[in-house]
Please model this.
Amino acid sequence: MAWTKEMPANPVVAVVGATGAVGKEFLEVLHDLDFPASQVKALASARSAGKTLEFKGCGQVAPGQLTVEEMTPASFEGVDIALCSAGASVSKEIRDAIVSAGAIMIDNSSAFRMDEDVPLVVPEVNPQDLSWHSGVIANPNCSTIQMVVALKPLYDLSHIKRVVVSTYQAASGAGAAAMDELYSQTRQFLNGEELTVDAFAHQIAFNCIPHIDKFLDDASTKEEWKMVVETKKIMGDDAIKVAATCVRVPVLRCHGEAVNVEFDSDISVEEAREALAKAPGVTLMDDVDQNVYPMPGLLAGTNDTYVGRLRKDPSVDHGLAFWVVADQIRKGAALNAVQIAQLLLPA
Model:
């Protein structure tokens, strides 16, 4: 049953998991987009209750400090939008409390992404799917988001048959502790010290790890499975074939992806470049004569999905290849969620 409650022009926003990397970025993005909130509540676990977080303000909320409150079912009374990034298990526990309170849950975890009654939304790609939400909207996996933002303008030129993607995923995708570990291991490595390995299966400093999330029965990882099934759901096309290899690399915030796409009919590089240049949320950085292309180390803190190295893929008929970079914490998580919230506001 589709949601019918009217969204106020100045909603009350709760940030769930406010002390985590994505939670803190939610607060940054609410400020940067000047989201018209009347109140912002910072919620987290009992051990974080009482901490203060700097908030630059947005809407009707003045700059200052937010005091973190312990999240309980009662926390959502009077809340209109809950931006959640506290992990799948927590999301499943609090879903009923949020929806029963009359709030819309925009969830950044994997808990509900493939549920038939939950839209999986990237605003530049499938905003129309918001029309059938029933109180819960899922934020896709970070690596999927940036890929489909780049695929959509090309899909509009010709149906996509097959996508092969290799990801170069930043430490931020594994959370704040993983980013800290990249820093600490780098210092340890350069000082000739023994490396402390905790957040990943192996050292991340000066290394690449072809293992993100758990391995499945077919020897792929769950991260790779997410890219397959989420792409089909977001694009609304179960016929698209997707093959993914996901790799963790020693980069802090931005994911890179090498993408090869096979279309039903031919698309010239010039047509693709024109479509990408006009696409919402896409910045084309593609001038190889001047060594211009997106690089993860230089794009941290940005909002767009950056595309470069656009060229023909001669290994298939009607093929194109390109390189995509986006900030995993922003477009891959917090920004996408707040953009969804913007779409929920009254016109």
Summary: Residues 12-140+333-344 form a domain with the Rossmann fold fold (CATH 3.40.50.720). The mean pLDDT is 97. The radius of gyration is 20 Å. The CA atoms of residues 180 and 250 lie 12 Å apart.
